[in-house]
Amino acid sequence: MENLRYYQSALLLERSKKVLAGGVSSEFRKYNHPHAIFYTHGRGSRIYDADGNEYLDFTLSQGPLILGHSHPFVLKEVAEYSEKGQLFAGQHIKEIELAEKLQHLIPSAERIRFCLDGSTAVQTALRVARAKTGREKFLRFEGHYHGWLDNVCWGISTPSPEALGDRENPESFPWSQGLPSVSKDESVILPWNDLDLVRKTVASRYKEIAAIITEPVMCNNGCILPSEGYLQGLRDICDQYGIALIFDEVITGFRLSIGGAQKYFGITPDLSIFAKAMGSGYPISALTGKKEWMQKIEEGKVIHAGTMNSSNPTIAAALATITVLETEKPYERLFTYGNKLMDGIRNAAIKARQNLLVQGPGPMFQIGFTDVKTVNDYRETFNYDRVKLSKFISGMHDRCIRIIGRGLWYISLAHTEDEIDHAIKTAAEVLRSL
After folding, report:
1. Sign, CA torsion 257/263/268/270
2. 260 vs 258: CA distance, rounded Å
């Protein structure tokens, strides 16, 4: 085991707390081990902190760094295009080139608008759906994350599993203080992966529902794949009742395939949100959609705006990232390495007699300690032993392997087979120590 030191990060955290609320600029960063860590640089599959510790990184900045840290082609393209200007408050050539590329790659991308992050793109999609249908509510699913803004800040936390109540009439709770109570009324919430329940609910309430929004894979809680026929069932329900089907592909986009989960599963939504892996860590997202839905934006009847949208550096970063993905065709490797890592951790847990569940498609996956054989929705994630997981994550971190605290792993193009083997060996060591 490495004798890691976190002294400099601790000092920087105390300094940071005097100027940044809580010492961080995003709530999740508080919960690293043993506290918020300050990093100095990243290269490829590695990230380095202020104490000089070097980590093999499976966090990848919560998913965006599909090419790894500081990919040279991305940095070069960003630098060269930034020399021409940073922000024009007008259109530029690479913006068209990126949009043309997305239109070619993504099934739903007949028309595109660029934003800065997933949260704003989600709100734009919901606004479009309301405008076209004349209805005000959207149907969403327990445990799915669609950003941190008020109307999607419900149904992603609960004081207890029992508090969620009946599956047919779930109770939802605010994730944060300060939410207006009316924001809760904008959505209808249901457990995921229960198509009969969606059918029943929509049949009785379709006159209220403008959209169904879903992560195509429930990545933020459990990395849960859709049950067979589930996404197609949602597509059919939306077609039947004139409802927008929205895929939140902030995580799945460019990770499951270069055309996203919609290409991978063969189900085309009406509207989609892409971010994270699209821009290699630069602040860019895209709302893509069928022309009949995006027409409201084209006509100026739905307002979408933003001073910082489609800046030179962000567009160049996204265009460079997608160019690398097109050129290297890495998806077979991402799945192979991901599944090798999953199998290796799973086998190590069996040998160590640990009740570790490993599930997900491969390029991203989740681990959790539980006796159940599979987790199918948010309610079932409460079977996980979170204390035991925390000990595992801490043990891996102290051995220089960085994983997201809730047990989610990401694979990048920068990871090598030797590093996958090393991660398996280290996981086995930590599992034996628990």
Report:
1. positive
2. 6
Q: What is the reported pLDDT for 38?
A: 95
Which H or E element spans position 262? helix 260-265
Condensed to tens digits (0 to 9), the pLDDT of residues 350-398 reads 999 999 999 999 999 999 999 999 999 999 999 999 999 999 999 999 9
Q: Are 69 and 44 in contact (CB under 8 A)?
A: yes
Hunting for tokens 């499951």 — which residue is that?
256
pLDDT digits (tens, 9 = 90+) for 181-216: 999 999 999 999 999 999 999 999 999 999 999 999
DSSP secondary structure, 88-127, as one string: -SS--HHHHHHHHHHHHH-TT-SEEEEESSHHHHHHHHHH
End-to-end Cα, the chain, rounded Å = 14
CB 39 within 8 A of CB 49: yes
Q: Which of 182, 361, 348 is nearest to 255 (CA)?
A: 361
- Burial track 138-173 (b if 16+ CB lie within 10 A, e otherwise): bbbbbbbbbbeebbbbbbbebeeeeebeeeeebebe
Q: Is the pTM of this model over 0.85?
A: yes
Quick check: 399 pLDDT over 60? yes
Residue 103's Cβ-count burial label (10 Å; 0-12, 13-18, 19+) is: middle
pLDDT digits (tens, 9 = 90+) for 34-79: 999 999 999 999 999 999 999 999 999 999 999 999 999 999 999 9
Sheet hosting strand 209-214, strand order edge to edge: 111-115, 285-289, 271-274, 244-249, 209-214, 137-141, 187-190
If DSSP codes are grouped into helix, strand and coil, which group holds residue 60?
A: helix
* Domains recognised in the chain with CATH numbers: 7-70+330-433 (3.90.1150.10), 72-328 (3.40.640.10)
How is residue 225 annotated by DSSP? P
